[in-house]
Amino acid sequence: MPNKPSIVLVHGAWADGSSWNKIIPQLEEAGYNVVATQHPLTTLADDAEITRRLCEAQTGAVLLVGHSYGGAVITEAAGKCPNVTALVYIAAFGPDAGESLTSLSAGGAPPPGAAAIRPDKYGRLWLDKALFNENFCGDVEDEEANTLAATQKPISVQCFQDTITNAGWKNLPNWYMIAANDRMIPPAAEQFMAERMKAKIIFLPSSHVPMISHPDEVADFILQAARSIVPATVNEAEIEE
Question: Which of 192, 184, 188, 174 is nearest to 210 (CA)?
């Protein structure tokens, strides 16, 4: 539909683009062009570049949405994407320039889900399948949660150590959904990051994956952000007409 931004969805650690499967149909039904990244989870720079290229491929304005580690990715990528006009964080990291996920997390006690992380000899981090459901997606039905555990995509240790070079949220309007029952990122840390970026904030009684357990609320939140940037996407020639 004319003047509507494209919506680019960026997944987090231990997941891939399919984590947005319940969100995409709702956004498309509302008339938006929607695409989701499939990034390698190798380095922050790699994942940000994949995101930048996907944004570049869209026509017109782009709303960037990141979940979990995907928040760091959109933070890094936004400054390299001139067509990105707003950012949405879903239970996500929002680091400042010079911060890494490791340094950002060092200021407080580790979340309960940290006990489920298992490194392998190749520098990749997995979640223990026996602890996955409780910590990653505690409010998701068992059958679906078991599938998420079986298909998890490991993330490189390097992704946690790489620092943000430019915090895109400083120059853009931001929205942040805090997952009140998150066991992977402390809800207090989510609130700190959301307030620091002066985001529009909502709280959801959700696990770490609200886009799976509360898809209607997440889709509505993203649509609120998308609708708010419609005026910025209107073509001046159309206004004159």
Answer: 184
Token readout for 114 is 């940290």
Q: Tens of pLDDT along 99-139?
A: 999 999 987 889 999 999 999 999 999 999 999 999 999 99
- The DSSP output letter for 230 is G
Q: Which helix (H) or strand (E) covers residue 214, if one does?
A: none
DSSP letter for each residue of 105-152: HTTSPPPGGGGGEEE-TTSEEEE-HHHHHHHH-TTS-HHHHHHHHHT-
| C-alpha span between 74 and 168 (Å, rounded) | 8
The contacts of residue 161 (CB under 8 Å, 6+ apart) are 100, 101, 102
In tens, the pLDDT along 157-216 reads 999 999 999 999 999 999 999 999 999 999 999 999 999 999 999 999 999 999 999 999
Helix (H, G, I), strand (E, B) or coil at 195: helix
- DSSP annotation string for 25-72: HHHHHTT--EEE-----S-HHHHHHHHHHHHHTSSS-EEEEEETHHHH
Per the CB < 8 A criterion, the answer to whether 229 and 203 are in contact is: no
